[in-house]
Specification:
Layout lengths: L2 E6 L6 H18 L7 E6 L22 E8 L4 H18 L6 E8 L5 E2 L2 E2 L2
């Protein structure tokens, strides 16, 4: 049930976003040990001027600053080493797919069993 939620400034090549999401789902599924159909990824665009790093803003996504921001939601129970590998594979895949390796910031969030619902089923 991993869910990757990404936000970023307008991309120089927006056509890469969909491929990046698909690549991330596949990579996370492999690392998580889940069928790819159970991994979701979303993208939200941040309006130019609404993402400030220090005192600097950009209209388009720069390669060296203003990283893509993400949250990876996963069901509780992964070890610290598994979490580290999931974060690394998600960050590397998104960065490489968008042509900006090393410019992705993702945090990991555990979802407690019984505290999420998918469709009409509580996730346990």
């Amino acid at each position: 049930m991993p869910v990757l939620i990404l936000k970023g400034l307008p991309q120089k090549k927006p056509s890469k976003i969909r491929k990046a999401l698909k690549n991330a789902c596949a990579a996370i599924a492999k690392e998580y040990g889940s069928p790819v159909k159970h991994v979701w990824a979303t993208w939200e665009e941040i309006k130019p001027g609404m993402y400030i790093e220090g005192d600097v803003s950009y209209k388009k996504q720069p390669k060296k600053s203003h990283p893509i921001l993400g949250q990876l939601l996963c069901l509780e129970g992964k070890s610290p080493e598994e979490i580290e590998r999931l974060l690394a594979v998600a960050s590397e895949t998104v960065g490489e797919s968008l042509g900006m390796p090393g410019n992705v910031f993702i945090t990991y969030h555990e979802v407690a069993r019984g505290q999420a619902v998918s469709g009409d089923t509580v996730v346990k």
